Amino acid sequence: MRRMSNSAAKQTDLTIVGAGIVGLATAYAINQRYPHLNMTILEKENEVAQHQTGNNSGVIHAGIYYKPGTLRAKLCVQGVRQLTDFCDTHGIEYHRCGKLIVAVTEGELPRLKTLYERGQANGVPNLRQMNQAELREVEPFAAGIAAIHSPNTGIVNFKAVARKLRDLLHERGVEVRLMQQVNSISHRHNQLSITTPQFELQSKHLINCGGLYADKIGQMMGIASEIRIIPFRGEYFFLRKESHHKVRGLIYPVPDPSFPFLGVHFTRVLRDSGFGVEAGPNAVFAFAREGYRFGKVNLGETLDALSFVGFQRLAAKFWRTGLGEMRRSLSKPLFLRSLQRLMPDLQADELEPGGAGVRAMAIHQSGEMVDDFYIVDAPNALHVLNAPSPAATASLAIGDHVAQRAAGLFGLD
Ligand SMILES: Cc1cc2nc3c(=O)[nH]c(=O)nc-3n(C[C@H](O)[C@H](O)[C@H](O)COP(=O)(O)OP(=O)(O)OC[C@H]3O[C@@H](n4cnc5c(N)ncnc54)[C@H](O)[C@@H]3O)c2cc1C
Question: Can you give the C-alpha Rg of the chain in angstroms?
Fold first, then answer.
């Protein structure tokens, strides 16, 4: 019997911390290979996918942006296929609505060309370079002098994918135990003792998929001191229904090379509440790891970020960009101005306040952002310390990758 009651003595072969899409996909991949392995997923919230997974842009990225050869490039391209197959098999709605990356100035053309070459090198299918007339045929309201068109880029509700993974795991006897925040982990006699406020779980192995808290969970096992997760909130506006026709698919700018995010863009979205169009997200330093509003402050977490030497080094380089993002976060006219670069006739009254997500950005003590997916071995454990975008797209491929490493490291075969 794999399920446990709250009061019984608890023992399991493998514990996964975090029921975001990475934790669930990892559990799914391991369960497919080792169906008899006793596995438990611990999640601190009362439902799966409540953080990054449930508050993202919902884009199935094709794999254009990432440096060839990196895990991000490889697992994204592989993950798109796995994700769309998964959606086909399980009747989850998704749309290949296509995406334009639009250059607005001559100065952006070399970077657009580099992106095209990267996409080709990464094996992204059917990428096309477009001139102004061609891009206008795809997105009549978009500005721009040239673009890359990626017809394979799509949209999905990642919450729906996560819930399906949860249900499939449940059917196979793997339970996601909700409202179980892991507070400490100790390692004794080749066995881990994992404590939540409700119980103590003995586990042979652990995989940390804790997203915004992955570093803290790593530190419970004495690793990850060289990095810190810094939270960056991404805020959205909704486009009013009457303006939805202005966005047929996804319209992105050429990313600013001095900025680690993709730049505010327009996306069609599939939410639990239905179809919509969003504009954003920006990227603002958040004063709490789960700081979904500007006013939400966690003093301890803010001091923890500010006192980290890596963050201080990063801030010394990017303070001007960071302050600009904060100003834009507080000013709708400034946000609108950024969006008007891509769609000049957009008006303020077409935008309604939208939601927000918080990105977990791993920063190294050197002040460099950890660019690639970053997964670290430790005795009896694997820690997914950095799974930024496109980790939702790549989740099933990340799950396979982690399962393969776990098999070797934990001797599962
Ligand atoms: C604004 C935004 C837009 C994005 N857009 C896209 C996109 O369009 N396409 C894309 O592919 N990716 C996108 N991403 C990235 C993507 O959402 C993430 O890479 C992905 O969701 C990471 O999944 P995860 O499971 O690692 O993290 P999460 O979804 O954050 O899950 C981590 C889980 O761990 C739990 N947890 C943490 N600490 C503990 C603890 N101590 N005990 C128990 N449980 C714990 C949390 O409650 C949470 O449920 C975006 C992200 C954001 C924030």
Answer: 21
- Residue to mutate, 51, 150, 180, ligand 1, most ligand atoms under 8 Å from C-beta: 51
- Distance of CA 144 to CAs 54, 103, 109, 358, Å? 32, 5, 11, 29
Task: Determine contact, residues 96/249, Cβ cutoff 8 Å.
Answer: no
Q: How far is the CA of 208 from the centre of ligand 1 (A)?
A: 12
Is-cis flag, bond preceding 257, omega within 30?
no
Closest CA to 158 of 324, 298, 343, 25: 25
pTM equals: 0.96
Q: Is residue 244 packed enough to be buried (19+ CB in 10 Å), middle (13-18) or exposed (0-12)? A: middle
Is the Cβ–Cβ distance between 386 and 370 less than 8 Å? yes
Domain ranges of the chain: 10-52+159-226+371-410, 97-152+231-364
Main-chain dihedrals φ then ψ at residue 131, nearest 5 degrees: -90, -175
- CATH class assigned to 97-152+231-364: alpha beta
DSSP class per residue in 86-106: HHHHHT--EE---EEEEE-SG
Q: Which CATH number fits domain 10-52+159-226+371-410: 1.10.150.20, 3.30.460.10, 3.50.50.60, 2.40.50.140?
A: 3.50.50.60
State in Å: Cα 21 to ligand 1 middle.
Answer: 7
Report yes or no: 48 and 163 within 8 Å, Cβ to Cβ.
Answer: yes
Residue 59 CA to ligand 1 center (angstroms) comes to 14
As a whole number of angstroms, the distance between CA 296 and CA 356 comes to 12
Q: Is the pLDDT of residue 1 over 70?
A: no
Closest ligand 1 atom to residue 210 Cα is 34
Percentages (nearest 5) of helix, strand, coil residues in the chain: 35, 30, 35
Reduced to 3 states, what is the DSSP secondary structure of residue 19? coil
Helix residue ranges, H only, 193-244: 214-220
* pLDDT recorded at residue 172: 97
Residue with tokens 């060839």: 68
Q: Read off the pLDDT of residues 103-143 as tens digits, 9 standing for 90 and up.
A: 999 999 999 999 999 999 999 999 999 999 999 999 999 99
Residue range 285-323, pLDDT digits in tens: 999 999 999 889 999 999 999 999 999 999 998 888 888
Tell me the best of 52, 206, 278, 370 to mutate to test the pocket of ligand 1, counting ligand atoms within 8 Å of each CB and taking the most: 52
